[in-house]
Design goal:
Elements lengths: L1 H22 L4 E8 L1 E2 L3 E4 L2 E3 L1 H9 L5 E8 L1 H10 L4 E6 L2 H4 L3 E2 L4 E10 L16 E4 L3 H9 L6 E3 L2 H9 L5 E5 H10 L6 E17 L5 H15 L2 H10 L4 H36 L3 H18 L3 E6 L4 E4 L1 H7 L3 H4 L4 H5 L5 H14 L1 E10 L5 E11 L8 E8 L1 H5 L1 H20 L8 H11 L9 E6 L4 E5 L8 H5 L13 H16 L4 E9 L5 E12 L5 E10 L1 H15 L9 H18 L3 E8 L2 H8 L1 H21 L3 E6 L4 E7 L5 H15 L2 E3 L4 E3 L3 E8 L6 H17 L5 E3 L2 H23 L2 E10 L4 E13 L3 E3 L1 H11 L1 H22 L6 E5 L2 H4 L4 H12 L6 E6 H5 L2 H14 L2 E7 L6 H6 L4 E4 L1 H4 L6 H16 L3 E4 L5 H9 L4 E2 L8 E2 H10 L5
Helix pairs in contact: 10-17, 11-18, 23-24, 24-25, 27-28, 28-29, 29-31, 31-33
């Protein structure tokens, strides 16, 4: 069977390679490495790499073209590998001249700003000129080091491998100033609540553009990266990613965003021009009947000038104002008669900018059109307002001289808040509709209308989107705007039937569009809005948002339909993408927890109404973290995809209605709806356990992974009538399955709820106990077996609950672990133990060592080592007399983190012991790499050492291996003299147990400590 599998595997691989060679395409590997601690650009956590650079790289390198191999290291090593060709690319890298000779750069992706940070309240007179007189730190091999050394002339400084080390060196007073990226520093300080510990003394010392850096052996990657960056920027994906990481921490982001808002404002101005274009077009039609429409045209022109929600100016080449509309009066505070005939720069432009604006007029005369220009103006009351201008030179005008037509949008408020921009959009849209309605009341003489037509036709020569007009009287359709060129309008216009415009729309949208317009006409409504799909010239369907105005005659019959159509395709694609992310897991493609809960809620309601029943099956993969730790997250992801496929195949094969989702990192959930009897669930759970127990081949490691799962079950609506109740119950059932040794399933029972309530009560009491200091330390002596003298004591926690006496640690420690209270309790234990140790030293008991138990959660707490160091300094104890006991599993879990913490504390002199050795993750290979001082053999082995040869052999083996690794051995739970004799015979170093003393309060242990010698 295994040979067949091997042959099948080899054949599959060859087939894949043959297919790839035929297609002349491959998943080209790209080795992409980043700084392992440079948040938010890149950082590592739980063995995985995160950050802006990683997310951007995943977006840039398309998975169907490139296989991205991610890794991290200290920055100096990353850059060295890039230059040597050991990796292909990295980001972000500051673009400096020295590096251009060593690597290629992509287009810049953003700008970094460098500042000088000091401690809060630093009073030294520090500046760039005297920086060499202070203790300054920078990141090693960073562009800031180059600048400090070569530009500022500082030769003596301190380097640190990571930003975290640099900032803590500043906070701890090891350096007086730190030169670093403001984006990275602000991110780290704000995220870790350290802003009140530092200050930005000198900001924006210099800026540097950053980009992807590529090894010179891979030049083809540069053009590809640039192409992908352009695509991501144009689609708005880059800005969305940038916002996720930097909107809270980077003022430069807002500057960039403001520029985008200005473009949006320009877009809104164009919409105004759309409406005006429509008006001019209709005015042209009405001009055919001048005898009955003269006054209407005049009225229209007047209303247009008064209601246009933008500044409209006409100036001659001298800069003298010819026309000044009502909106300009509102913005500036000047009346038209106050400014017409006067020079624009003399009234509105600050003196230091006048020469620039006059040169700008000359520039307009040369280039004819000058758009997207912004500058500040001074209003009548002295306020400064920012205006975004579009300028067009009209060489042949109604005044027989060249004129400049300028339209300006006030962007002052837009710069302050995007919300006001959106409100302004609604007002502009309303104004557009009102402008169209004014067509019915035009009643001015044709001569004045013609003059106004010549003025305003200059404003509407360019329209970005598509406008279509249906004329019911002439039975035809017309199209305007640049967007119309993307659609095959000639086919529509060539047909005699003017209603053929409906063929523009997707067949699924035609009836909806027609009904909306038909209903509006029946109800005599003037405005209609809808979204639909239109095919472009390339055969692709594009989404448009249509804003329609229906014009009626005096008899109430529709005469014209005018619509402004905006390309909505990118917005729709973004909405679909967001919707998918919101409801589906991107790795497995399964529904996520949100969609699962929505489906469950509807099925519970259905079950109650129809008197049926269903079940929720919650699956948790046992020890899945070990897979990630041992084989890497890529292997873990591959396993999740493979096991998902197997579960789906099984669920699709059974007759029950099922819904399968991924509700957590290593958690899945299944809904079994319409159960005929509850016993059906037992068969399903048994099959599911079998699937998770079976071997699964993983390509990443070229081998199989074996694991198991724990399952909880809860029935609806019997166990609960809400999603919250069902999830609470199924979680308790799952916890029960794990407590039973895992690889099991448990069905929710009411007693589990009572057990959970008891856990909640214990948690409440624990919180009160912490505040009331109801905890006490008991001590048990540890005996040196060479001389039978007390060597140390182990601190053991006891809880005195008023009214109930002493609560067993077995009862409250698991609750404290789960709730996180163990961290605060652990700190109290350390404080009390250090205090007692110091007190005994003062009493002359200076030989004593003390051992303190640490929970895994407490041990991995952020800044744990700093807390221990602080308590050592507070009580003045000798760290060489302190030992911390941790479990085997806790020691190797997150191995790199453990190594860092243990190494730091060991440098202080603290020793570490592995508690309950032999019962957990027994791996002397791991333990050999950790700075461990000894191991404690679990009492389960010691209790059988007299009668069981196997137990004695195990204990002897542990002692032998430990001594080979230069580790001391402590035997726990020694209760008989014979056990003591055997331990001495096989070379055990230390022992503790009831044979010598049970755990006793501080006052009682002092008596034994004074005597020191133990007699048994």
């Amino acid at each position: 069977m295994r040979n067949n599998k091997a042959i099948l595997f080899v054949f599959t691989v060859l087939l894949m390679l043959f297919h790839i060679s035929l297609a002349n395409a491959s998943h080209t590997p790209v080795k992409f490495e980043v700084d392992k601690n440079y948040p938010p650009f890149s950082y590592t956590s739980d063995g995985r790499i995160y950050g802006f650079a990683i997310d951007l790289a995943n977006l840039v390198f398309e998975p169907d073209k490139f296989k991205l191999e991610l890794s991290s290291d200290e920055w100096s090593q990353v850059y060295k590998k890039l230059v040597e060709g050991k990796i292909d690319a990295t980001a972000p890298v500051a673009i400096i001249e020295e590096r251009k000779e060593e690597v290629y750069f992509s287009k810049p992706i953003f700008t970094r700003h460098v500042g000088l940070y000091t401690q809060k309240g630093f009073s030294g007179n520090i500046s760039l000129k005297n920086l060499k007189d202070f203790k300054v730190g920078v990141m090693k091999a960073d562009y800031t080091e180059t600048y400090l050394k070569e530009k500022l002339g500082v030769k003596r400084y301190y380097t640190y491998p990571t930003v975290e080390d640099l900032i803590f060196a500043l906070i701890d007073g090891n350096i007086e100033a730190a030169l670093m990226s403001q984006e990275v520093a602000n991110y780290f300080l704000i995220k870790n609540n350290l802003s009140d510990r530092t200050q930005l003394k000198i900001k924006n010392i210099f800026t540097v553009k950053s980009a992807f850096a590529v090894n010179k052996k891979r030049p083809e990657l540069v053009s590809y990266i640039n192409q992908r960056l352009d695509y991501l920027i144009n689609k708005g994906i880059f800005d969305e990613l940038y916002c996720n990481y930097f909107s809270t921490y980077s003022p430069e982001y807002y500057e960039k965003k403001n520029r985008q808002i200005l473009l949006s404002a320009l877009y809104l101005l164009i919409i105004i021009l759309f409406a005006t274009s429509v008006i001019i077009f209709v005015m042209t039609r009405i001009n055919r009947g001048l005898e009955r429409g003269k006054q209407a045209y005049e009225k229209y022109a007047q209303l247009l000038a008064e209601n246009a929600n933008a500044i409209v100016l006409t100036l001659n080449l001298k800069g003298e104002i010819i026309y000044f509309n009502k909106f300009a009066e509102q913005i500036t505070g000047y009346k038209s008669e106050e400014v017409v005939g006067k020079k624009w720069v003399d009234i509105f432009i600050p003196s230091h900018r006048r020469e620039y604006i006059e040169n700008l007029f000359k520039r307009i005369a040369e280039v004819k059109i000058l758009n997207d220009h912004e500058n500040e103006i001074v209003t009548k009351n002295g306020d400064i307002r920012w205006i975004l201008w579009n300028n067009t030179l009209i060489e042949s005008s109604y005044l027989n001289e060249p004129l400049i037509i300028s339209t300006g949008l006030d962007i002052t408020q837009i710069k302050r808040t995007q919300q006001l921009l959106e409100e302004s959009y609604e007002e502009i849209e309303q104004t557009n509709q009102e402008l169209i309605n004014t067509l019915e009341i035009l009643n001015k003489q044709s001569e004045m209308l013609q003059e106004e037509k010549e003025k305003y036709k200059f404003l509407v020569e360019n329209v970005s989107d598509c406008i279509w007009e249906i004329d019911f009287n002439e039975k035809k359709i017309e199209f305007y705007g640049r967007l119309k060129d993307q659609f095959d309008i000639d086919v529509i216009k060539s047909k005699n039937d003017f209603s053929a415009w409906l063929e523009f729309f997707h067949e699924d949208d035609r009836s909806t569009v027609f009904k909306k317009l038909q209903d509006a006409i029946l109800l005599h409504e003037e405005k209609v809005e809808f979204e639909s799909r239109i095919r472009d010239k390339h055969g692709n369907w594009r989404w448009i948002s249509s804003h329609v105005q229906i014009l009626y005659n005096e008899e109430g019959k529709p005469e014209k339909i005018i619509a402004v159509n905006i390309d909505w395709t990118a917005k729709k694609e973004y909405e679909h993408r967001i919707e998918y992310i919101a409801y589906y897991d991107t790795l497995t493609g399964l529904p996520n927890r949100k969609l699962f809960e929505e489906r469950l809620e509807s099925l519970i309601e259905k079950a109650e109404a129809e008197k049926t029943q269903g079940a929720v099956v919650l699956i948790d993969i046992d020890n899945f973290k070990d897979i990630n730790d041992l084989y890497g997250h890529e292997a873990g992801d591959e396993y999740l995809i493979a096991v998902t496929k197997k579960v789906l195949e099984y669920l699709n094969s059974i007759k029950l209605d099922t819904f399968f989702a991924r509700v957590g990192g290593d958690e899945f959930a299944v809904i079994l709806d319409g159960l005929a009897k509850k016993e059906e669930v037992i068969e399903v759970c048994t099959k599911l356990l079998g699937i998770f127990e079976s071997e699964i081949y993983i390509q990443k490691i070229e081998g199989c992974i074996f694991t198991s799962a724990s399952i909880g079950v809860s029935f609806y609506p019997d166990d609960g009538k809400s999603v919250k109740e069902i999830f609470r119950n199924v979680d308790m059932a799952l916890s029960s399955a794990k407590e039973n040794g895992k690889n099991d399933f448990q069905i929710f029972m009411p007693f589990m709820l009572m057990k959970n309530f008891k856990k909640i009560e214990i948690e409440k009491s624990l919180k009160k106990a912490i505040e009331a200091d109801q905890f006490e330390l008991y001590y048990q002596p540890v005996i040196n077996l060479r001389n039978m003298e007390i060597h140390s004591v182990e601190a053991l926690l006891r809880w005195h609950l008023p009214g109930k006496g002493i609560i067993s640690p077995l009862e409250f420690i698991p609750v404290a672990e789960e709730s996180g209270l163990i961290v605060r309790i652990g700190e109290m234990v350390i404080e009390k133990a250090f205090s007692d140790l110091k007190e005994w030293e003062n009493k002359g008991i200076d030989y004593l060592h003390i051992a303190i138990n640490l929970s895994t959660r407490q041990f991995k707490t952020k800044f744990f080592e700093k807390m221990v160091q602080k308590q050592i300094e507070r009580y003045g104890v000798n760290p060489q007399k302190i030992s911390f006991e941790i479990t085997e599993t806790g020691a190797v879990e997150n191995f790199d983190v453990s190594l860092k913490i243990l190494s730091f504390l060991c440098q202080l002199g603290i020793k570490f012991l592995i508690d309950d050795f032999g019962t957990g993750y027994s791996s002397l290979i791991y333990l050999r790499r950790l700075p461990i001082g000894g191991v404690k053999i679990d009492r389960s082995f010691i209790s059988e050492i007299e009668l069981s040869k196997e137990s004695r052999a195990i204990v002897e083996g542990i002692i032998l291996m430990a001594h080979k690794l230069d580790l001391k051995v402590i035997a726990e739970g020694v209760e008989t003299k014979r056990e003591l004799e055997i331990l001495k015979e096989i070379g055990c170093d230390f022992a503790q147990g009831y044979l010598f003393s049970k755990p006793v309060p501080k006052t009682e242990i002092e008596k034994l400590l004074i005597e020191r010698k133990i007699f048994v």
